[in-house]
Design brief:
By secondary structure, the chain is mainly α. It has 10 helices and no strands. It has a domain at 1-96. The chain has helices spanning 2-16, 21-34, 44-60, 65-79, 92-96, 108-135, 138-141, 150-166, 170-189, 196-214. The radius of gyration is 19 Å and the shape is globular. 32% of the residues are buried. Keywords: Membrane, Transmembrane, Transmembrane helix. It comes from Aeromicrobium panaciterrae. This is Prepilin type IV endopeptidase peptidase domain-containing protein.
């Protein structure tokens, strides 16, 4: 899962710092070296770089190309996870020496995947949410101007839902759903007869939460 971790981290980091393609390439190369890919397997770098490039270009042009390619890469990398596992991890000793009891039984590749997922859920996931909202119609997406805070609350919600799901604290996820309803109720209650605000909140929230839960089965 380390290669998938690097891909998610590269896309997440590149999107987070202004969708800079070069920074994504740097994360790919450094990430592969840190997870133990070695120089003999750096052929993975251009392959992951293509995914980063298509993601950034697609995000800039509101295209589904980057999302589609990421989905394909994710499926392929999961299928090849056994063949793409690395034993000689340069920072394995540092990881083993971490004095964090909760990580004592967590393999390094799962730890790396967790970091990659968290980075992806920070800003890049907003791209997916926005593209899905675009499919619902431009009038629904226009509600973004009236319903402020989604770009900030979205990552916080996704981190919390992902963390709760990975640790098995599913009951806490219900608190997020309830809190979101309470938070948005005053704005939704002033909605017009078409119900566009409610549709914006519901679609955006369910897609956002779905992304947070998407990678949980890998842990």
């Amino acid at each position: 899962m380390s290669v998938l971790a690097v891909l998610l981290a590269a896309i997440g980091a590149a999107d987070l710092i202004g969708r800079r393609i070069f920074s994504g390439f740097i994360v790919v190369i450094v990430g592969l070296l840190l997870v133990g890919a070695g120089w003999n397997t750096l052929w993975l770098a251009p392959l992951l770089g293509i995914a980063v490039f298509v993601w950034i270009v697609g995000a800039r042009s509101d295209s589904f190309a980057g999302i589609t390619l990421l989905a394909v890469y994710t499926v392929v990398l999961i299928a090849l996870s056994e063949q793409l596992s690395f034993d000689d991890v340069p920072i394995q000793g540092w990881y083993d020496d971490l004095d964090i009891p909760s990580l004592a039984t967590v393999p390094f590749d799962r730890f790396a995947l967790g970091l990659g997922v968290v980075l992806f859920l920070t800003s890049a996931a907003n791209v997916v949410v926005r593209e899905v909202l675009t499919l619902t119609g431009p009038r629904v997406l226009e509600q973004e101007d009236d319903l402020q805070g989604g770009r900030v609350l979205g990552p916080l919600e996704r981190w919390f839902v992902f963390g709760c799901a990975v640790t098995g604290n599913l009951a806490a996820i219900a608190l997020v759903v309830a809190a979101k309803g309470i938070l948005r109720f005053p704005e939704i209650s002033r909605d017009k007869p078409e119900g566009l605000r409610a549709e914006y909140v519901l679609v955006g929230s369910f897609v956002s939460w779905g992304l947070a839960l998407l990678f949980v089965p890998l842990f």
